[in-house]
DNA sequence: AAAACGGTCAACCGCATAACC
DNA sequence: GGGTTATGCGGTTGACCGTTT
């Protein structure tokens, strides 16, 4: 089987995401949903491969992604599930609302694994010690979180009253979304989190015909006030909630980041 | 003060598999 | 049924940052 490369290596950016890229991705996904990750960067004006966009969204930008210190309950859950499931991080993360598989995996490797390494035979987890270390770690992390929370991005949450996505649209389009919404995990971990995500994206299934031809310029948009050209020549929408006079991240208030 | 070291975590890569044609 | 495409997952990497020497 010939597999097409996930990235067209010519001209696509790699590495750390810039605030501007985040802004474009958030703006596009909150507006149109993630109907097709491979096509999305083109329409969102991003020089990234779809895979990279998906990862960035799921692990970092998505609403309700919980960041920062793990509670003891969460850590105990990870440990318990890891004993039971092994390295099935997505299944473990599914039991921890707001946590992503990547984050759980990182947390395991950096914080929890050592308890097993250090004390392979005794009670595998010293929660008091871990708690102390978490607190210690929290000091430095707190600073970073404060910074992140200060970003104040007014992400539009599905649950927020002002969130009224008008979705993409052609029949092709909505079929993609339907596919996303109805696809079943083969790895036995269809979770509340999965379902809530699916449910939230179902809200995008509003019929209309012009999405493919006008991917980012929704005529009846009540959110997009104007469009502008970025340096790469892509046109992208400007959102009222992304006030150009403020730092992008300064507008991120009240959202997990 | 600065170089070396170690920990953390965002992001990439390759593979597996579901979905589609 | 077989080829192709899209998505999801887990392993790994490397940049960044704090700590130690």
TrEMBL record:
GO MF term list:
DNA binding
- Write out the biased-composition intervals (Polar residues): 159-184
- Keyword DNA-binding present in the record's keywords: the answer is yes
Any single Pfam family the record assigns to this protein: Myb_DNA-binding
Region Disordered, residue ranges: 110-196
Q: Which keywords accompany this UniProt record?
A: DNA-binding, Nucleus, Repeat
Cellular component GO terms, alphabetical:
nucleus
Compartments, record wording = Nucleus
- CDD domains in alphabetical order: SANT (cd00167)
Q: Which residues form the HTH myb-type domain?
A: 9-61, 62-116
Skewed-composition ranges (Basic and acidic residues):
118-150
Identification of the protein by name: Myb-related protein Myb4
Q: What is the lineage of its organism?
A: Eukaryota, Viridiplantae, Streptophyta, Embryophyta, Tracheophyta
């Amino acid at each position: 089987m010939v597999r097409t490369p996930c990235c067209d290596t010519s001209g696509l950016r790699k590495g750390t995401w810039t605030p501007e890229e985040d802004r474009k991705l958030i703006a596009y996904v909150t507006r149109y949903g993630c109907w097709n990750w491979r096509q999305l960067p083109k329409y969102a004006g991003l020089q990234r491969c779809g895979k990279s966009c998906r990862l960035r969204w799921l692990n970092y930008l998505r609403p309700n992604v919980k960041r920062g210190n793990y509670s003891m309950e969460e850590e105990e859950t990870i440990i318990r599930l890891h004993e039971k499931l092994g390295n099935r991080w997505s299944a473990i993360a599914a039991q921890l609302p707001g946590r992503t598989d990547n984050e759980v995996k990182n947390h395991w490797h950096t914080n929890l694994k050592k308890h097993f390494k250090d004390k392979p035979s005794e009670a595998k987890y010293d929660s008091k010690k871990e708690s102390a270390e978490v607190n210690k770690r929290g000091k430095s992390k707190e600073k970073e979180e404060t910074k992140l929370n200060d970003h104040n991005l007014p992400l539009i949450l599905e649950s927020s009253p002002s969130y009224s996505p008008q979705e993409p649209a052609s029949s092709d389009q909505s079929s993609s979304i339907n596919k996303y919404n109805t696809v079943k995990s083969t790895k036995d971990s269809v979770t509340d989190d999965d379902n809530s995500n699916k449910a939230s994206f179902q809200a995008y299934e509003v019929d209309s015909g012009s999405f493919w031809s006008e991917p980012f310029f929704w005529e009846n948009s009540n959110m997009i006030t104007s469009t502008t050209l970025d340096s790469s020549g892509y046109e992208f929408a400007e959102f009222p909630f992304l006030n150009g006079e403020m730092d992008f991240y300064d507008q991120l208030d009240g959202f997990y980041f």
